Amino acid sequence: MNNQVQPPTEAQEINKVPLIIVLISGAFVAILNQTLLGTALPHIMRDLNVDENTVQWLQSIFMLVNGIMIPITAFFIERFTTRGLFLTAMSLFGVGTIICAVAPDFSFLLAGRVLQAAGAGIIMPLMQTILFLIFPIEKRGSAMGMFGLVIAFAPAIGPTLSGWLVEHYPWRSLFYVILPIVIIDIAVAYFILKNITKRTFPKVDVLSIVLSTLGFGGLLYGFSAAGSSGWASGAVVISLIVGSITLAWFILRQLNLKQPILEFRVFKYFIFTLTTALGMTVFMAMIGTAVIIPIFMQNMLGFSAVESGLALMPGAVIMGLMNPVTGRLFDKFGARWLSIIGISILVVTTFMFAVFTPDTTFMYIAVVNAFRMLGIAMVMMPVTTAGLNQLPTNLIPHGTAMNNTMRQMAGAVGTALLVTLMTNNAVPSEGVEGAIHGVNVSFFVAGVFSVIALVMAFFIKNSRPGIGDVH
């Protein structure tokens, strides 16, 4: 296996700066696109005449399709060139953006989101894999931190930009703003992107792709549909059963294939398994908030879209600024104590979000959210890097695909679960106070998830580069 442990020599000689600029620009629009819609959801609800449970599908479908695409991306990375894959993904994303911009109704808008998500689902794991191939192990924490700084700038400006745009222009302007960035990135990538990843030409196993799509898709659809249909509805139950059975079949098949589409043996590495579970729990808490806070502020407290965006902005800025810092701290001290401190902050601040009243101030939401995002920043990048550092180089594409798949599943489940809790626990007869009760219940449950994550963080050991089970 030694011949596979070293990244391709071409990657070692490559000029990293233009390559990273192209990759990060692609990831930037993918993430900006995910956070742009948050503050615009109430406007889309009014314009297209849909309710909360329906409109949250614009977020859930993005994570659903992401979750379906990401497992297949590990196969794509080994099958196609870096350039070809990146350009295809960005083109898919661009076409989806155009469809969203001109969508005459909700179903067209949803279809555009599906295409956007298909592109984004390839871009994120591809970029992480390339970063891990071009940086040595002792510099990966800092590299992921710098990447995190730029990527976190997207959610930092997303809600505020979105709020400002939907106050002054139709919500479609959100997609027209993204489109030029996508076109420029495709043009630049065409000229400067080099091939980094090693092609091993795995065979196309059609059954595996079908099982992966039905398995991950079935589970994600089931959890997401529970938001509007309820957990006992036939569609939800059938989709969860089909998803579970086909996913189990998919996993067994991968373990028996010589060249699996997604390598489940990455879970033999304990730290990788633990940090992936941790990342899922934290992401669930983070992504649910991005959907619930704008709905709470605009529909229950009467704030404008701009104000709800501004309330989320300090937290996103802090998260962005902290990423390079936590990257360096990780390279120095490992992930254990960073995670424990970060999740402790997350636990306290999440429970502080579970006591909202009709008198809750803008300042309270902004300050508590800022501390909450500080906690999340101390966890996300370090645990991802700690987990991937445990894997031999030939398993890194599978590790990044698995990590991203699990996180997207957690995001879709988290969003659907928290929105379901919010709507099911609202007490319509009590007006605004009754609606806010639903929000408080959803944050209380998010707080419980955070406590589970805190317990898991104590089990992280030897996560510093060069120590422990690193191959």
Automatic annotation (TrEMBL):
GO MF entry, a single one: transmembrane transporter activity
Organism (species): Virgibacillus indicus
Record keyword Transport present: yes
Lineage of the organism: Bacteria, Bacillati, Bacillota, Bacilli, Bacillales
Subcellular localization, as worded in the UniProt entry: Cell membrane
Protein name, entry field: MFS transporter
Keywords tagged on the record: Cell membrane, Membrane, Transmembrane, Transmembrane helix, Transport
Superkingdom of origin: Bacteria
InterPro entries tied to this protein: EmrB-like, MFS, MFS_dom, MFS_trans_sf
Topology within the bilayer: Multi-pass membrane protein
Major facilitator superfamily (MFS) profile domain residues: 19-465
GO cellular component, one term: plasma membrane
